[in-house]
Amino acid sequence: MKIAIIVAIDSANGIGKNNDQLAYISSDLKRFKNLTTGHTIIMGRKTFEALPKGALPNRRNVVISRQANYIAAGAEVVSSVEQALRLCANDDRVFVIGGGEIYRLMLPQADELYITRILHSFEGVDTFFPAIEPQFWRNINEEGPFEDEKTQLSYIYSDLVRK
Q1: Which of 152, 161, 111, 156 lies closest to 8 in space, CA to CA?
Q2: What is the torsional sign of CA 105, 8, 14, 45?
Q3: Cα 149 from Cα 163, distance rounded (Å)
Q4: The pLDDT value given to residue 154
Q5: Predicted confidence band at 39 (pLDDT cuts at 50, 70, 90)?
Q6: For residue 22, what pLDDT is reported?
C-alpha cells in the first residue's frame, strides 16, 4: 500500500485557521477530487467535521478519532493511525487529507506528497504542516505558478516521492 499525503500549504507551512482550510482554490479542489476519487481517504475527526456535506462521495472515508463511540455518517471510524492503516491494508493507495496532527503522524510513513503551495502567508494560522526534509523527498513534478481568478492567489503544484 502506498500512503499519499495531499495538502495545500501557504508559504509558512500553514494549513488551517479556526478548524478550516486557509483558502478555497477551485482548480485545487478539482485536483483533489481527481486524485482521491476511487481511493480511501484518511482524516482526523476535525477534518471530517469541516467537510461541508459530510463524507466525500466515491471514496472510502476513514476517520481517526480518540472519542469513544464517535459516529461519522458515511465513514468508518478508528481510534488510531495504526488501526486506519490495518483497515486499509489491502488498498493500493490511500490518501491522507488532514488535519495537522494526522499529517504529523503519517508523514514519516508517507510514500508520496501531493502539495499545493500557495504563494502567500496567511495571518492567524493555527495549524501547520510538518517540515518537509529535502533529504527524504524528490520532486517528480511541478506545475505553475497559476493564479486563482476568484481569490487572486498564486499557487504551484508539487508532487514528491520518498527517496
Answers
A1: 156
A2: negative
A3: 35
A4: 98
A5: very high
A6: 96
Single out the residue of 25, 60, 32 nearest to residue 154, CA to CA: 25
Q: Which residues contact 74 (CB under 8 A, 6 or more apart)?
A: 54, 55, 61
C-alpha cell at 146: 497559476
Instruction: Using alpha carbons, select from 51, 15, 20, 17 the residue that is nearest to residue 36.
Output: 51
Work out the widest C-alpha separation in the chain, in whole angstroms: 44
Residue type, 121: S
Neighbouring C-alpha atoms within 13 Å toward the C-beta of 131: 3
Domains of the chain are 2-162 (3.40.430.10)
Cβ distance 48 to 63 under 8 Å?
Answer: yes
Strand order in the sheet with 20-21: 20-21, 14-17, 127-128
